[in-house]
Amino acid sequence: MKSKSLTAIFPGTFDPITNGHIDLVTRASLLFPRLIIAIAENPNKKTLFTLEERVNLASTAVEHLLNVEVIGFDNLMANFAQTHNATVIVRGVRTTHDFEYERQLAEMNCALKSDLDTIFLMPSIAMGFISSTIVKDVAYHGGDITNLVPLHVKTALLKRLT
Fold first, then answer.
1. Which candidate in 34, 54, 113, 132 is catalytic?
2. In 19-119, where does DSSP find H-type helix?
């Protein structure tokens, strides 16, 4: 049952957002009355798109989901959650390697904000192999990414890579 005040966060770099991300966001949006896609600005990661571009690409990709908003951030996830009154983080896990990494982050977030829970979602079978890194690599080498990202993301990615 959905709580009227429950806000969840789906954080990531989203460089760029993929159909795998959108699958998880769509499914999470059915579980929570409010879902924030929190797009991280991480100075330790070199991104192809700026934070503003990633926010715009993601916003367009999920504009049909009325309870989803996209916000960029550059601080600790626990602080972002506090600012937005969120008590749940949603993360997708594809592999056991993903799970181990995400488990550590979940424990740290809970240590920083004790009422912040993390929920793990498995990707749909058809989406489990998709990652932003793979999409960029396939596009860079001339492969077809039509089924991996929304059309506007494909257009932006191909333009950026040429």
1. 132
2. 19-29, 51-61, 77-83, 96-112
